[in-house]
Amino acid sequence: MNHIAPGARAGIYHYDEIDRQFVAERVEQFRKQVERRLSGELTEEEFKPVRLMNGLYLQLHAYMLRIAVPYGVMSATQLRKLAEIGRRYDRGYGHFTTRQNLQYNWIKLEDTPAILHELAEVDMHALQTSGNCVRNVTTDPFVGAARDEVVDGRVYAEILRQWTTMHPEFTYLPRKFKIAISGAESDRAAVRIHDVGLLARRNDKGEAGFSFYVGGGLGRSPFVGKLVREWVAEEDFVAYLEAILRVYNQYGRRDNIYKARIKILVHELGLEKFTQEVEEEFARLRGPKYRLDPEIVEGVRQHFAPPPFEEPPDHSEALERAKASDPAFANWLAVNVAEHKAPGYAIATISLKPAGGIPGDATCDQMDLVADLAERHSFGELRVTHVQNLVLAHVKKDELYDLWKQLDAAELGSANAGLIGDIIACPGLDYCALANARSIPLAQAISARFADPVRQRTIGELGIKISGCINACGHHHVGAIGILGVDKKGTEYYQITVGGDPTLTTEIGDILGPAVTETEAVDAIEAIVDVYLANRTGEGERFIDTLRRVGHAPFKERIYAAD
Amino acid sequence: MSAKDRSKEGSMKAITANRLRDGEVVFLGEGGRWVESFAEAALFQRSEADAVLADAKATAEREQFGVDIYAFEVVEEDGVPVPATMRERIRTAGPTVRLDLGKQAA
Fold it and tell me: Taking an 8 Å Cβ-Cβ cutoff, which residues of chain A contact chain B?
């Protein structure tokens, strides 16, 4: 294999020979499986689970290939490869997902082995992006950069990647299994809506440990993850997770797909009984074999050593001048740029949500540009966020204006991170075989309605999340305003929920009233916003806070007044 | 009988699949051949659709041609047969949000 992965990129885990050999073997295995399917040696029934294990779905228009971006972190070289594949084998674009992965929508089965081979050249693959296994572990997109970070989640996400890959006990779980890790004071990884959510902490001695939340999840039956153990020491990290997965494997339902996720098991067993089972299993497992050796942790940590930061002054005159001279840049700076732990640096969120655009989509030209900008401004690495944006995590403040101008020229400069235009939307009925209604057109209409950046900032933090079916890939349950597409006798309707919260104060939103049509939905969202603005105590009171204070009634009255 | 003529007789069905090799949406046309355009799809009475579908499935699997084969309802609008559901309309045309993609772009 022509291996062209960079040798020493800061912040990127570098495959060793075992990793490379494993991925190469899987590519060759799949190549033969595809050949056997095309020759008729394998039936579709036999082949389907195999292709799913390699991230290949059949969607409405073609095959869809989901590429793993482990914990959402990748190098500029890898992003360029994704752009190259998108041009050569797809239709010139890709779609970034809420699992921090990338999907191509127009893939040919016969091309897939070649695509996987090309991905392997840059240490990428599509493993664990489908099937009843531990999926791509997600983490904070500001990891390694955030000022409020306590523990680097990449280290433990990478340990889990290695530990779960091909783990025989976890290859045929009752259902898919999603894990998220947050190591900062602010939860930017939505940990409590995951099968297992991990909050990394430090104790009084400065030692790393984890709070384990289990049984969160959205979909047909949404649940907020429950605290199973407040503190698990680093050395027990793997053992405790293994104990949870063993209990799930033993008791999780396999007879009913709708009741197979661990959230149902936790709910039906009850937290006390579930915890008891896990603790008993943990007591059996705990010991030298499952002890996470500090040397292993340190070895992985070295892959994520800080990049060679310079020591610019924290106050940037160049930045201040640009801010004063260019209001659009000043707005982007205020909305899309976060504080960095290193003086003189900042974290820049690249919005993939232009007004009226398709959330999460990026053209291959845009991917190439972001790869160039990552090399020029952020040590050659970037992140994918679970809200379908990209992040350059280590940008010198002096260079932010130059960065933004280049982004803006490529329609990547929208100033809406965390605002009403920063909508999560699943692919919906435009692409997805499971969807009941379209998500994207509604997202486009809403973001176009609220295109004015001044208006967006006036409204403030307000997450809209849209799903095209009850599987909730668009996270609608935890949207401050959530929208679920439903099919009513062949017509698309949209059910609006309010009060969802994906952060540590996790809440599942409540249905506001009867579903509305697509046209009515945009007006309804605007009406909700108007009620919020009329009722808030000031600009400091977020939508979610006003809603909690005044309740649903004023919103309901406005939307359904004519009914 | 053309698709247009036959759809006038009432609710009809067409049969669709994704081509195995490339996933392209295809429809069962006249004479049992698969076509890429819905305009060339054969339409079947509801009463005959099940038997045609079973035969198409068996043939497609034997010849490694298509996967996910099923029948869907067709109605007439302005004298033209069209899929009854939004889902099938999108499959026959392409994403409504990217008119430059799919069959509609051809």
Answer: 37-40, 43-44, 58-63, 91, 106-110, 358, 429-431, 435, 437-438, 440-441, 444, 487, 490, 492
Residue of B36, B69, B87, B91 for testing the chain A interface, max A β-carbons within 10 Å: B87
Closest CA to A521 of A435, A441, A463, A433: A441
**Selected residue of B64, B74, B99, B100 to mutate for chain A interface (largest A Cβ count, 10 A):** B64
Domains of chain A: 17-121 (3.90.480.20), 145-303 (3.30.413.10), 317-409 (3.90.480.20), 424-560 (3.30.413.10)
Cβ contacts from A onto B, under 8 A = 75
pLDDT surpassing 90 at residue A549: yes
Q: Give A345-399 pLDDT, tens digit per residue.
A: 999 999 999 999 999 999 999 999 999 999 999 999 999 999 999 999 999 999 9
The pLDDT confidence band at residue B3, using thresholds 50, 70 and 90, is: very low
What band does B99 get if pLDDT is binned at 50, 70 and 90? Answer: very high
Residues across chain B? 106
- Please tell me the distance from the alpha carbon of residue A310 to that of residue B8, in angstroms, as a whole number: 75
Among candidate residues A219, A217, A220, the one with its CA nearest the CA of residue A248: A217
pLDDT tens digits for range B38-51: 999 999 999 999 99
Integer angstrom CA distances of residue A274 from A35, A246, A256: 45, 12, 20
Distance CA A317, CA A266 (A): 54
Q: What local confidence, expressed as pLDDT, does residue A165 receive?
A: 87
Q: Compute and round to an integer the Cα radius of gyration of chain A.
A: 23
How far off is chain A from B68, nearest CA to CA, in Å?
9
Provide DSSP, B25-75: EEEEBGGG-EES-GGGB--EEHHHHHHHHHHHHHHHHHTT-EEEEEEEEEE
In whole numbers, what is the pLDDT of chain A averaged over residues?
95
Q: Distance between CA atoms of A422 and A500, rounded to whole angstroms?
A: 15
d(CA A538, CA A155): 41
Contact (CB<8Å) B95/A490:
no
pLDDT tens-digit profile of A458-495? 999 999 999 999 999 999 999 999 999 999 988 999 99
Residue A376, C-beta contacts closer than 8 angstroms, at least 6 positions apart: A399
Domain boundaries, chain B: 3-105
- CA nearest A134: which of A212, A70, A72? A70
Could you give the CA distance from residue A51 to residue A450 in angstroms, rounded to a whole number? 41
In the predicted model, what is the mean pLDDT of residues A175-199? 96
